[in-house]
Every structure is written in structure tokens, then in C-alpha cells.
Design goal:
Blueprint lengths: L5 E4 L13 E7 L7 H8 L2 H4 L2 E7 L4 H7 L5 E5 H9 L5 E7 L5 E5 H7 L7 H6 L5 E4 L5 H12 L9 E4 L2 H9 L5 E4 L3 H7 L3 E6 L14 E5 L3 H4 L1 H20 L1 H11 L5 H14 L8 H13 L23
Parallel strand pairs: 2-3, 2-4, 7-8, 7-9
Antiparallel strand pairs: 1-3, 4-11, 5-11, 6-9, 6-10
Length: 331
């Protein structure tokens, strides 16, 4: 999909620090999500500026954020490890320089009336929950994204063919919530806090969640990583170090100052149902990485999702992940 660029935050004011030489940085995000709480915290607390960075964030839905890195349209992105793996399989090189989230954040919600008609609940066996997707129209933010892959993997648990047994339609999160409530779509695949909003509004049940026990065999999971071109950090090591350091500071702030972090997120996600907010905040507090170091177990699980979902072939498995990441800047 060719999508326009929406600026999330203008360039930040320059602080006295020049540790990163007051460098302008273009940074792409694939969605608006609680999973990116450390970025919002760093923005609110002016951590980027204090590190000598003038960061401009752009919203590029799904794999478009990684594509922007590959085309050198932006310097960095938050990109899912499965997308980085698939890019390498296709001969497109990008490198992850930090891990930011350890859980499989994707969740799928189903209209409550359809769940009741099928006789399923959130506690039904996963095979039965997955089978109910047959014939359904499912909204996702971006095609070929990790959310899309998760739905394909879930469908196989129910004996469904992801190519023909349901319809995937790209739709922005807020639009998908409205479409769900008006019965224009049947289910949504998305990330925090949108599934929680759908459930707490009474419109849906949580059909599947990678954060609540489904697919435990894929944990830990390198969901999101700071990603750039392989040669970018060779050219600008101070900038890469500052980017990773600031993200780490945001992660630490989330753990050490939960009330202040809640207040920052409340300003980002205005009007959110309090119960949905509390649930989403508890989840990100649990799964936000405690270290920016990238582990190979998480990368292996990310590759497994791609194979199980059919988004890469069995014979396309990478034998080594050494070209995918570096822990040179991580702590």
C-alpha cells in the first residue's frame, strides 16, 4: 500500500547537550500503540533533546515503516523482527540495534454477537476460537504486517486456509472500531490499546491474544526493535548510541515512575475508557523489555511465526541471525 506520511511530533527543541552533535533524525513508527510508551515518555520528558537529538517522528503504517528505512527515506524505525527477517530473505538488508518489547503484542477481537452465536468465549479452546474466523471479514492496519501474520497463524490452529477462508481488509484502528460496532466487519487484529477498547466497549470479546497465553511456544518474542540501515551506525555511531540510550531511559522511566508514565500516556490517548487504559498499561508494563539487548531466542520465535503463518517458506529459514542485529549499542 502507498500511504501518506503523518507527522506525530515535530522536531524537538535542542537542549544544551551535544552528545549526538545536535543531529536531526527521521524516525518512522508503524502504528500508534501503548507498546511505544518509551518513545512517548522520552518525547514528553525531552530525553531526545537532552541527548542532542532533534527527532521527527512519522507514522508509516505496518511494513511501510521498515520500507522507509530500506529506501533511506528515514534514518530509523520501530519494526517487528518478523518483518526484518522477511526483508533479509528477500535480499533487503536492515539491522536491529535494540530490542524494545518481549511479548507477542498482537490480539484479535471478535464481535460479541458472533461469538455468542458460535457458542465460544475467551476461555474456549484456541482451536475452537480460531475456527470461528471462517467466512469472517477481519480488519488490520496493514497488509503483510506482524498482525496479518498472527491472524494467519491463528487460523491454522482452527484448520482454516488463510488464503481463502476469510477476508482481510486494511483499515485504520479508529475506523475499524466504528466498523465493528456497526457490523461492517466481524473481527479486528490490532495492538494495544485498540483491542482493549473494543472489549471494554462491549462490542467484542478477546478471541486471541499473544500477551495472555496463546502461543506460549513463541515467547520470548523480539516483537519490536529499533531498525536502521546496516551502514548507518558505522557512519553515525554517536547517533545510534544516543537513540538506544534514550529508548532505554524511556523503558526505565516506565518501570520506575509508573504514575508519571500513566499521566504521559493519558495525554497521548485521550478519552480512553479507564478500564481499557488500566488493562493496556498493565500489559505494557509487564512486556516492555528490561534491556535493549537482542536475544536470539526471540529472533528464532519471530522466524517461527513467519514460517507458521506462511509468510516465508520453510526452505527460506535463515540459518543465522548474525546479519540481522547488533548489541554494540545495547545495555
Amino acid at each position: 500500500m502507498r500511504l501518506g506520511v503523518a507527522t506525530l511530533a515535530a522536531s524537538l527543541a535542542v537542549a544544551p547537550s551535544a552528545r549526538a552533535d545536535d543531529t536531526e533524525v527521521a524516525f518512522a513508527l508503524p502504528t500508534v500503540s501503548f507498546a511505544f510508551a518509551p518513545i512517548y515518555i522520552a518525547d514528553a520528558e525531552q530525553m531526545w533533546a537532552k541527548a542532542g537529538l532533534k527527532v521527527k517522528f512519522n507514522l508509516l503504517i505496518g511494513v511501510n515503516s521498515l520500507n522507509a528505512v530500506l529506501s533511506r527515506s528515514v534514518d530509523f524505525s520501530i519494526s517487528a523482527a518478523p518483518a526484518v527477517i522477511r526483508a533479509h530473505v528477500r535480499g533487503q538488508k536492515a539491522i536491529m540495534i535494540a530490542n524494545t518489547f518481549d511479548g507477542l503484542v498482537t490480539e484479535v477481537t471478535l464481535r460479541k454477537d458472533l461469538a455468542q452465536a458460535a457458542g465460544i468465549t475467551e476461555d474456549s479452546p484456541i482451536e475452537k476460537r480460531a475456527a470461528v474466523l471462517k467466512g469472517k471479514k477481519i480488519a488490520v492496519q496493514g497488509l503483510n504486517s506482524i498482525v496479518h501474520g498472527y491472524i494467519r497463524m491463528l487460523a491454522k490452529k482452527g484448520g482454516l486456509n488463510p488464503e481463502r477462508d476469510f477476508t482481510i481488509t486494511p483499515m485504520a484502528s479508529e475506523a475499524s472500531l466504528a466498523a465493528l460496532k456497526s457490523n461492517q466487519i466481524d473481527a479486528i487484529g490490532d495492538v494495544l490499546p485498540w483491542p482493549e477498547i473494543a472489549v471494554h466497549s462491549g462490542a467484542a470479546i478477546m478471541l486471541s491474544s499473544g500477551l495472555r497465553g496463546d502461543f506460549p511456544e513463541l515467547l520470548p518474542f523480539n516483537l519490536n526493535g529499533i531498525t536502521t540501515q546496516p551502514d548507518h551506525c558505522d557512519k553515525m555511531p554517536k547517533v545510534c548510541q544516543a537513540i538506544v540510550d534514550v529508548y532505554g531511559q524511556g523503558m526505565a522511566f516506565l518501570r520506575e515512575h509508573p504514575e508519571e508514565a500513566r499521566a504521559i500516556l493519558a495525554k497521548r490517548f485521550t478519552g480512553l475508557d479507564p478500564a481499557a487504559f488500566d488493562e493496556a498499561f498493565a500489559i505494557i508494563s509487564k512486556w516492555t523489555a528490561k534491556s535493549t539487548r537482542i536475544g536470539e531466542d526471540g529472533l528464532r520465535h519471530a522466524q517461527e511465526l513467519m514460517v507458521q503463518s506462511g509468510m516465508i517458506k520453510e526452505d527460506e529459514r535463515l540459518a543465522s541471525f548474525t546479519e540481522l542485529y547488533t548489541n554494540k549499542f545495547a545495555k
